[in-house]
Specification:
The structure holds two protein chains of two kinds. By secondary structure, chain A is an all-alpha fold. Chain A has two domains: 46 residues, no CATH class; 215 residues, Orthogonal Bundle (MetI-like fold), CATH 1.10.3720. In chain A, α5 crosses α8 and α11 crosses α15. The longest helix of chain A is centred in the N-terminal third of the chain and has 32 residues. Chain B is mostly helical. In chain B, 68% of the residues lie in helices and 1% in strands. Chain B contains 15 helices and two strands. Chain B has a two-stranded antiparallel ribbon. Classes of the chains: A mainly alpha, B mainly alpha. Chains A and B meet through α1, α2, α4, α5 and α6 of A and α1, α3, α4, α5 and α6 of B.
């Protein structure tokens, strides 16, 4: 029984991890080497061609800077706006609160793909196509984040807020100086979800900045790499995989350092039902 | 105090409401309006002309390429959902149960390894799979080693349906004529997923299983140990304990995983865009991809918006059906 368990775990680890290992080592292979020995996890004739191609002869550095800019700004905005709204919905007593919360819940139910055309329409009408604002603003608030922060503030004790008010702090100061610092685990979870979602976002850049290469982010720039021939059916695998690795590695580092928060982020879905 | 909270409550939520209103609610209303119009996306929105229900009629009723393409996309996505959702749910549950075992060494490593594909870029992962499924790639190399003969399937170019292939082995090469629904014959509807779509399905299972495994793990940790011990004392074997104790206790997680799975699989886009662009022979066309193709490549924004709303309804129907099937019975 125990042996079967470890055998299964090892097999599945291989299936889940080996593709990444192989992709990384293939970036150092020549194209002929890739075709001749696809499974071998080391290059027979090491070459830095793919990396030079990606780092020097493509706009990868620009895409990386764009991705960092969009991800950082969108995540900071989202953290601030989501936690502010979540705090208000959890702790303040105001007319219309349940109505607004109902609106937030309804928005969670809208599948993102349905928004492809609508978002394009609004961004076009607002003149935000081919701009950083068009890439950032639609991601700056999200209903799931508001929900997560509301749940988090709901679970915090009330004594501290009362103490802060007695000390003369106004409502925003109470939120900013007292409650937000205690809510740090919730904020970090949301930051991770937002970072991961924005870093990997593909659909939004596709519809918003497709026509403006200077605004491309990593996933979209990556999607244009290494294709050749009629219908894009000839692939330059080492170049495509080098680009993929560069897109994956920054997230992998964050993932390994902050793993427990990733786990919490993934299971907040389970808690919310 | 109460008065101050009324103002602050609205002030604190105003930016969020504004954001959700402008980038979610307003777009949906605008798109609903556009779905009843003819608009090329190239001219200003004001120049579009009203066409009534034409866009919906073209997709659902009127014979022609628009209808058959939409029917194909629905067929493909239906097989995709029927294949991916059960596979990822079962695999996630299996992995969660194994990883959850007491006294397991390397628990963190295994959990991390299984979850990692879920956090990576869809395009990067799609590229890795284009490489794995290439004619000279790893999948064919492994199959050639395991099976007699050399396997050199061009996975992403193979349009034959899996059910058609199986029928072919049984000597059935074509179905009875007729049975035409939405411009596709019954034989076409029953093709099964193409080999190319199957490759995309394998990718989908590989990338989503980790997240669902974590949800099952969270669910398993909520089951009180005494329950399992009581069943053990009552003489239940491992299999009985799993099906009579663990699985019923996991029902809420199971419902959640299947719901999220259904919602996610009906929206498959990035992988299709990067791997097959709807081909070969339209066998990986999905409604989501069709929205993009009609709106941005064929400049038929009204039709694209109509597809989006039909897809929304399809997702609602599927989640409602699922709730009906999995509802609590006494």
């Amino acid at each position: 029984m125990k042996a079967i368990r470890y055998l299964l775990l090892t097999t599945f680890s291989l299936i889940f991890v080996y593709p990444f290992v192989l992709a990384l080592t293939t970036t150092f292979k020549s194209r002929a080497d890739v075709a001749a020995h696809p499974v071998l996890p080391w290059p027979l004739d090491p070459s830095s061609r793919a990396w030079e191609n990606v780092l020097v002869h493509s706009d990868f550095p620009l895409w990386t800077i764009n991705s960092i800019l969009v991800t950082v700004v969108a995540t900071l905005l989202r953290l601030f706006l989501d936690s502010l709204a979540g705090y208000s919905l959890a702790r303040l007593n105001w007319r219309g609160r349940s109505l607004v919360f109902g609106f937030v819940l309804a928005v969670i139910a809208v599948p993102p793909i349905v928004l492809t055309i609508p978002r394009f329409l609004v961004l076009k009408e607002l003149g935000l196509l081919n701009s950083y604002a068009g890439l950032i603003l639609p991601l700056a608030v999200d209903a799931v984040g508001i929900f997560i922060m509301k749940q988090f503030f709901d679970g915090l004790p009330r004594e501290l807020e009362e103490a802060a008010r007695i000390d003369g702090a106004n409502l925003f100061q109470t939120f900013w100086r007292v409650m937000l610092p205690i809510a740090r685990p919730g904020v970090i979870t949301l930051a991770i979800l937002s970072f991961q979602g924005t870093w990997n976002e593909f659909l939004l850049p596709l519809i918003v900045v497709r026509a403006s290469p200077s605004h491309w982010t990593l996933p979209f720039g990556l999607s244009t790499l290494g294709r050749g021939g009629a219908g894009g059916q000839t692939f330059d695998y080492p170049v495509m995989l080098a680009g993929s690795m560069l897109t994956i590695i920054p997230l992998a580092i964050v993932f390994i350092v902050l793993q427990r928060f990733f786990v919490r982020g993934a299971t907040t879905g389970a808690i919310k039902s | 105090m109460r008065r101050g909270q009324n103002l602050a409550g609205w002030l604190f939520t105003a930016p969020a409401i504004l954001g959700l209103g402008v980038f979610l609610l307003a777009p949906i209303i605008l798109a609903l309006w556009v779905s009843f119009r003819d608009w090329s996306a190239l001219a200003p929105l004001g120049t579009s002309t009203p066409v009534g229900v034409k866009n919906y009629h073209d997709l659902l009723v009127r014979s022609g390429i628009v209808q058959t393409d939409f029917a194909r996309s629905l067929r493909n996505n239906l097989y995709y959902v029927l294949g991916v959702v059960p596979a990822q749910t079962a695999l996630a549950l299996l992995l969660a149960v194994i990883v959850n075992a007491k006294l397991l060494r390397g628990k963190t490593f295994f959990r991390t390894a299984f979850y990692f594909p879920s956090v990576t870029s869809s395009i990067a992962v799609a590229f890795i799979f284009i490489f794995l499924f290439s004619p000279n790639g790893v999948i064919n190399a492994v199959l050639s080693a395991l099976l007699p003969g050399t396997v050199d399937t061009v996975w992403l170019n193979e349009a034959d349906g899996v059910l058609h292939i199986i029928a072919g082995w049984l000597g059935i090469e074509s179905g009875p004529s007729g049975g035409n629904i939405m411009g596709l014959s019954a034989w076409d509807w029953l093709s099964g997923p193409s080999i190319a779509l199957t490759a995309v399905m394998i990718l989908a299972v590989w990338t989503t299983t980790g997240t669902f495994m974590l949800m099952f793990l969270a669910g398993l940790q909520n089951i009180p140990e005494e329950l399992d011990e009581a069943a053990l004392i009552d003489g239940a074997n491992a299999r009985q304990r799993f099906f009579r104790v663990t699985l019923p206790m996991l029902r809420p997680t199971l419902v959640l995983v299947i719901t999220l799975g259904l919602i996610g699989t009906w929206q498959v886009f990035d992988q299709i865009y990067a791997m097959t662009s709807g081909g070969p022979q339209k066998t990986t066309l999905t409604p989501s991809y069709l929205i993009y193709r009609e709106g941005f490549e064929n400049s038929a924004m009204g039709r694209a918006a109509a597809i989006a709303f039909i897809l929304f309804v399809v997702i609602l129907i599927f989640t409602a059906l699922q709730r009906l099937v999995l509802r609590e019975r006494d």
